[in-house]
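I am writing to request your help with a piece of structural work I have in hand. The matter concerns a single protein, recorded as an amino acid sequence and a row of backbone structure tokens. Could you please explain, in whatever detail you think fit, how the structure tokens follow from the sequence? Thank you for your consideration; the sequence and its tokens are set out here:
>
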Amino acid sequence: MTMGERRPLNGAKKVVLCGLMASTLTVLKMVLSPLPNIEPGSLLILVYALVFGRQVLSIILPFVVVEGLLYGFNPMWWLGYLYVWPLWGLICTKLPPGRPLLLAMASGTFGLAFGALMSVPYWVTGGPWAALSWWISGIPADLLHCGGNFVLALVLADPLYQVLCKLRDKVFR
């Protein structure tokens, strides 16, 4: 198997690995939570998607459910997580590995767009002005999210991808 090949997971190993990767997302998000909008979730989902393709959704769903259990199922926030993170995962499956600057730009763009994407439930419940005001008030946080995502992906995406490919190939021979 080549480094760039996206290989599906099967069986009990898939369940365990997806659980471990979803747990890693949750724990690292909690560890970095004191930093404003600097989160490793975007980076890890990017790398998981590059290595496992569309099966990244099997990692994202448990992550989103655990986030809801930990922080509460606030409909506005949680509904956004139900489509924003899977959307990011699917976008990442289309990105080419081994292009750190491109991956960093995509991750930064996602961080910048995060607030706009999360405003959709406000549009549905309160109309376009509610969504627009919520999104605009969050732009400073989106700028931090953009910068954090860009730097994390630029520095860590390629090394994490290399390591996860080697582990995948070792576990799923």
Q: What stands out?
A: The radius of gyration is 16 Å. The mean pLDDT is 91.
